[in-house]
Amino acid sequence: MQQDTAQTGDAPNPAATINIENRSKPRALLRVAVQSRKPEVLFDIGAAQGMLNPSNDDAQTERLAWWLAACQRGLDCTAKAAWVQNRCSYDPKCASAGSPSDLVRMLAGDDWSVVRQRANDIDAKLDAGQRDALGLGT
What are the E-state strand segments in the chain? Predict the structure, then answer.
């Protein structure tokens, strides 16, 4: 059995060790990736919400909640971040948000309280190691 191992310094990262056999199961890969709790991974999971749950009417809320969780865990969500500049290129007010939560709050509009609650839920499940309860499917 072959394994891909991501390295952090000189030590292998056990959360990034993935059996090649599982590559045919993208959701299984996501569940393994989310174990890293890296903000970039959380952001990408948010960006993939439309594909992960195409029938979900709340895909935008889910996307923003994952993005907020990523920002709160250290993702660069400042006006200088490439994703912010790309997302906000059409709206100068968007890129001038004072904090990560301000940016997501502006994008969420009336759904801000739901987004914030879902981000808190994601954070709590990540901290508790409940990756199967994050809605990434089977």
Answer: 3-4, 7-8, 11-12, 18-19
Q: Could you report the per-residue pLDDT of 42-92, keeping only the tens digit for each?
A: 898 888 887 777 677 788 898 999 999 999 999 888 877 888 878 777 776
Are 17 and 5 contacting, i.e. CB atoms less than 8 angstroms apart? Answer: yes
Please name the amino acid found at residue 54: P
128 backbone dihedrals φ, ψ, rounded to 5°: -85, 0
Asked if 43 and 50 count as a contact pair (C-beta separation under 8 A), the reply is no
Positive or negative torsion for Cα 119, 66, 126, 98: negative
**β-pairing, 18-19 with 11-12?**
unpaired
CA distance 30 to 70: 15
Q: Which of 136, 133, 117 is nearest to 125 (CA)?
A: 133
pTM of the model: 0.74
User: Which tokens belong to 121?
Assistant: 């839920």
Do residues 94 and 86 touch, judged by C-beta distance below 8 A? no
Of 24, 26, 107, 14, which is closest to residue 66 (Cα–Cα)? 107
**Where do we find the tokens 């990756």?**
131
